[in-house]
Amino acid sequence: MTSDIHLLDSIPDAKPVRVFIPIIGKAERYRASCVLHKTGPTAFQLLFQAGVMPTDVIDTYQTCLISVDMGGPSISIEARIIKIIGEQTLQMAIEKSVSHEQMREFFRVDATTSVISSSFHPEFFDKQGEPWAIKGRTIDISGSGILAVFTEQPPKDKQIKLEIALSTGESSTISVLAHPVRSLKIAENHYEVAYHFDDISTEDRDRIIGYCLIIQRKLLRLKVQVKDSTKL
Q1: Percent of the chain predicted with pLDDT > 90
Q2: Which of 45, 122, 154, 225 has a CA-to-CA distance to 81 between 20 and 30 Å?
């Protein structure tokens, strides 16, 4: 907790940040840009432009995640909402910081969705000089990579393009450049490959994090339902 007490010291005041806000009755979190204004050692305000903050539907019983771009690894803060002030301000208090490594694991969730691994540059074409593409399914996903299964083995030592379908309220497909960090043949026509993202836009990383938050919330709701059912 000591490091969390001094966390705000490393963040410049009036710093633009991104926040994921829980919404009443929805799995999806509302993603918005705002400005962080420090008000104490572990307290701060998030200031929004007029008309941006969904004041009437914010779930104040859940924590928010704030991502701060420091020009290198992002700083991530989990914080609770103390008070909604007017139409443009949230009064916040830090719950804990989330390191880069913790962020990767925190937002790694079991998720099955379609993924296509494909060539993106001529030197990655097959022997006939034709571009290739292999369809697969993800096993888990995070803001920094995926674990996926394919019926054919993708190249082990090539940077490739991944197209990942995210099934959210606004279904979308994101494209990233990635390289394999682990490839394993599990069975005949069954290859598990772990990819690390090399080039992904901030917007697409935000979409993945939002997608992971949706899944985490569903799993938490299921856990509560199972726990309640055992009491009957």
Answers
A1: 9
A2: 225
Measuring CA to CA, how many Å separate 37 from each of 15, 91, 92, 167, 210? Answer: 7, 10, 10, 34, 24
DSSP-assigned beta bridge partners for residue 150: 136, 191
CA dist 195 and 146 (Å) reads: 5
Q: Share the mean pLDDT of the chain.
A: 78
Strand partners, 164: 115, 174
- The string of pLDDT tens digits covering residues 70-113 is 665 567 788 999 999 988 899 999 887 765 555 554 556 667 78
Q: Provide DSSP, 82-119.
A: EEEETTTEEEEEEEEEE-HHHHHHHT-EE---EEEEE-
Burial of 164 (0-12, 13-18, 19+ CB in 10 A): buried
Q: Which domains does the chain have, with CATH numbers?
A: 6-99 (2.30.110.70), 108-222 (2.40.10.220)
Local structure of 197: helix, strand or coil: strand
Start-end of H helices in the chain: 2-5, 100-106, 202-229
Q: How far apart are CA 51 and CA 74, in angstroms?
A: 27
